[in-house]
Amino acid sequence: xxxxxxxxxxxxxxxxxxxxxxxxxxxxxxxxxxxxxxxxxxxxxxxxxxxxxxxxxxxxxxxxxxxxxxxxxxxxxxxxxxxxxxxxxxxxxxxxxxxxxxxxxxxxxxxxxxxxxxxxxxxxxxxxxxxxxxxxxxxxxxxxxxxxxxxxxxxxxxxxxxxxxxxxxxxxxxxxxx
Length: 178
What we know:
The protein has about 180 residues and is of the alpha/beta class. The chain contains three helices and nine strands; from the N terminus they run αααβββββββββ. It has one domain: Ribonuclease Inhibitor (Leucine-rich repeat, LRR (right-handed beta-alpha superhelix), Alpha-Beta Horseshoe), CATH 3.80.10.10. The radius of gyration is 17 Å and the shape is elongated. The relative contact order is 0.10.
C-alpha cells in the first residue's frame, strides 16, 4: 500500500495514542520521517505493543506490512482492519469492543487472543497454524476448530458441544475462565 509523498505519522495514524505508540516504536529521528522514507521505515516494523493506551482508531496499522506481532489489548477499538497484515503470527486484541474481526488473510497466526469483545462470529478456518486461541467472554454461540489441527490451547466459556471439532483433537487443552 503506497504512502502519499507528504505523509507523516500524524496523517497516517489519526489516533494520538496509537501515533504515540508508533513514535516510541520508531524512536528518535525516525518518528519525524515523511513520504518514502517513512514508508520504508514503517515497512520494517515487525512488532507493535500498544496495549492499554486508550486507542479508539487503529487506522494506520495497514502500513505495517512486516508486522508479525500486534498487541492492541485493552483499548477502545470497535473496528480493526487486518487485511494487509498477512505476516501476522501473534495477535492480541482482547478487551476491546470488536463486534466482528476478519482474520482470513492472516493465515500464519499461531496465537489469537480475542477475549472480552463483542464478537458474534469468528471464522478461523483458514488459520491452520493456530496453536492457542482465546475467545472468552464474547457473544459467540459456536466456534469451529475442525481445520485447526495444531490447536493445543483453547480458552473459552463455550460449552464443549458448541466447539465443533473438539473431540477430533486429542492434544487440545481446554482452559475455562476463573
